[in-house]
Amino acid sequence: MKRIVAMLLVLVMVFALAACGNKPAPAPAEPAKPHFDKLTLEFVPSKDADVIIAGTANLPELVKAEMSKLGYDIDEVDITVGTSYDATGEAMSAGSIDLGWLPGGTYALYSNDTDVILTATRNGLSNDSVNPADWNGEANATQKNGPQVTFYRALIYAAPSEYGKKLAEKVNNGEKLTWEDLDGAKWAVQKTSSSAGYIYPTMWLMKNYDGKKISDLSNVIPIDSGYGTAFSYAAAEQVDIIVCYADGRNDYEASWTLPTDQQDPTGKQGMGRSDSIWNELNVIGVTEGIYNDTVAISKASPYYTPEIVAALQDCFINIINTPEGKAIFDVYSHTGYAKAVDSDYDGARAALTAVDA
After folding, report:
1. What is the mean pLDDT of residues 291-304?
2. What's the CA gap between 201 and 224, in Å, rounded?
3. 187-189 and 241-245: which strand pairing?
4. Does the pLDDT value for residue 191 go beyond 70?
5. Interval 237-278: pLDDT, tens
6. Please, which residues have CB within 8 angstroms of residue 133's CB and are 6 or more apart in sequence?
7. Do domains 37-124+292-356 and 132-291 have the same CATH topology?
8. What predicted TM-score, i.e. pTM, was given to this entire model?
9. C-beta of residue 92 within 8 angstroms of C-beta of residue 110
10. Between residues 46 and 176, which one has the greater pLDDT?
11. Exposure winner among 18, 49, 128, 334, fewest CB in 10 A?
């Protein structure tokens, strides 16, 4: 009996050991995702700062969620609007801003310290004529319904001031403006690194007026606070000419005729005009095409590695391909993003060099 009991114990131990041997090994723990405390994003003030902040309010949560899917945990995404184009470029050069939405000219100026990762695409306009008169009047109001494009134009606009109306009348009658006509006007322009607000209008002058530039004009008001200020100056007849991207009138159409104590749905302050912006703000010059805005990264950023840059590219491409993302980036008229490399902006650097020469 003792022998039988002993054999049974041996069999039980054998089966127990076999069972232990067949138990699957525990799954290895997933490696922790790389963790970052904060990602800082900054937009240049090509639109009113409060409009940009309101329009991008949901972007931080979308970025955190998308980057998490791509393998990166970020506690906070902070969005600011630079006080000027150069201020954003300088902040990125210093490493205090990780990602910046920079126009091509601004990127070219700061490309030693930043690197482009995306180029914006946008809906082309219904009008792409190089004849300024073709842009004027309600019948020629531009629509944002063209094919996807990677460029845009800047326009030179005559304000509804007494002198501005004279310039517009000459252009609409098919007459060419002289340098003296333009030099007699009061101009409002953006900072010198702004593609549509300075660089390409300067190149338009150089091409048509024997190399003369904005810096050669007698009466120029530089604006640090963005295009909204330029449009308000034009509406108040404080200037005769402003320069802006080609769909600028679309963006300020509603606020142009609102009372000055009211705001349009996007928060732009009313400008108190009685006639439409298409009739009152006439185009007198059309620039060459400008390569689209960038999303650029600071080379001093902790995110500036090939792996994280690739994730950031996918992150924003994925976000803008959602309805919510499209609504957010509509603040800049961006409808898509394409991966970009620095050499895409060699033309912008050449333009900047020509303007500064």
Report:
1. 95
2. 17
3. parallel
4. yes
5. 999 999 999 999 999 999 999 999 999 998 999 999 999 999
6. 171, 172, 174, 283
7. yes
8. 0.71
9. yes
10. 176
11. 18
Domain 132-291 has what CATH class?
alpha beta
Encoded tokens for 85: 């184009």
- Work out the average pLDDT over 161-167: 98
| SS3 category, 249 | helix
Buried b (16+ CB within 10 A) or exposed e, 314-343: bbbbebbeeeebeebbbbbbbbbbeebebe
Task: Give me 198's structure tokens.
Answer: 């300075």
Residues 6+ apart with CB under 8 A from 333: 122, 123, 144, 247
Fold of 37-124+292-356: D-Maltodextrin-Binding Protein; domain 2 (3.40.190)
3-class secondary-structure state, position 97: coil
Domain boundaries, the chain: 37-124+292-356, 132-291
Give one DSSP letter per residue of 213-228, joined into a string: -GGGSS-EEE-SS-HH
Q: 30-34 contacts: CB < 8 A, separation 24 or more?
A: 33/68, 33/71, 33/72, 33/73, 34/71, 34/72, 34/73, 34/308
Return the structure tokens found at 217: 């004009």
CA–CA gap between residue 15 and residue 24 (Å, rounded): 16
Residues 269 and 262: their CA atoms lie apart, in Å, by 6
Q: Is the pLDDT of residue 17 over 50?
A: no
The residues that bridge with 295 in the sheet, in sequence order, are: 101, 118
Would you place residue 147 in the very low, low, confident or very high pLDDT band (cuts 50, 70, 90)?
A: confident
